[in-house]
Amino acid sequence: MENVIIHGFAPSTYTRSARMAAIEKGIEHELVPVAYGKPEHFALHPFGKMPAMTVGETTTFETLAIMSELDDRSEYPTLFGTTPRQKADILTLVSVAVDYAYQPVVHIEVKDGKPDPNQLAAADRVIDWLEARLGSHPFLAGDELTAADLFFAPMLAYHANQVGEDRAYKKRPCLRRWMDGMGGRASFKETA
Length: 192
Known about the structure:
Layout: E1 4-7, H1 13-24, E2 30-32, H2 39-44, E3 52-55, E4 58-61, H3 63-73, H4 84-106, E5 110-111, E6 114-115, H5 117-134, H6 147-163, H7 165-169, H8 173-183, H9 186-190
Parallel strand pairs: 1-2
Antiparallel strand pairs: 1-3, 3-4, 5-6
Helix pairs in contact: 1-3, 1-6, 4-5, 4-6, 5-8
């Protein structure tokens, strides 16, 4: 396989998600920092975001597209399910991560050690929904790791670092169990 390069910064939750996908799929990759805001960055991602991925002469940007391409490059495990219903469920979870979770969960303002209460309420709405959804399942979409887990794990790890693990998980035992499981995965450890 051609050399896979993921362009981004290691602390970026989306860059981490893409890297976790590569590791879970058994695809070796190199992380190369972007020249943020420079023409080289916009050549990789026309909207100046991250990550972007290059494989040979081809560039893919946006984490969902990168994960999809990585999923197609290696047969197992599948990150987007094997049935239309599974795929729709996983894409719904990913859409929630991107559209509703990212801003309040990752970009929460903390002043004097206290998170902004309005942002915290918005983050709690998403996190409580995830708690209810997990139930007794080991992963967000059921019994197997999927792209949904790879999107949410970096976001929630970042959130817990900002607001404190006790605040993030104390009343959410399913989420705590899931994060403990995700934290034990090589993909999570190698991208920390």
